[in-house]
Amino acid sequence: MPRGHYSLHNPHDHTPLGEEHFHCATGPSGWRYVSQIVSPTGDHTGSVDLTLDELGRPIRLELHASAWQVRGAALEGVTWVRTDPTGEHATEGNAPAHAFTGASPAFLIATARLLRPTLGAGAIRTRLVAFTPPVLAPRTLDQSWALLSSTPHATDNAPLIADEYQVNDLETGEQHTIHITGDVVLSAPGIELESLESPPSTFT
Q1: Would you say residue 38 lies in a domain?
Q2: Cβ count within 10 A of residue 164
């Protein structure tokens, strides 16, 4: 069960945004990721609980940020309920999208797992609903993912395969690169892996 923490920063001006302390695990029914997010001063600012099925579809999502809460799942596209900080109002949403995304590294693993692009096969297009802190307002976006390389790195046990993906925002044309090994993000815009207490899990 991989366990560790990521440092988070603004990808444009590199302002520190805090840390995300996580653990995740694969199982016979899919994959689960749980994390707690803290500010640069150490205050608790949110949490992520995401469960995927064996095909990479989100069967359970629970996000918290600044007293806002979102619960969602893949249902007739994706469906969610967003609750305000007072807890007095809840709004339901649905979109013809494939999955969710957001600021957490969990969503990068989830999208790569859902799309599973292969070397030389070109980019795969997907529609996602994004929830980003601090208010977790939903936004639908289109991305394309392409696998650029898969590089083995020797370890004391089995080699680790580091996959390099090119991700394009199809609305803005913004392009960036993500590096993933197993179910751990090595680096991505605004995300750096700072510690890892056990090797990444591998998907079968």
Answers
A1: yes
A2: 16
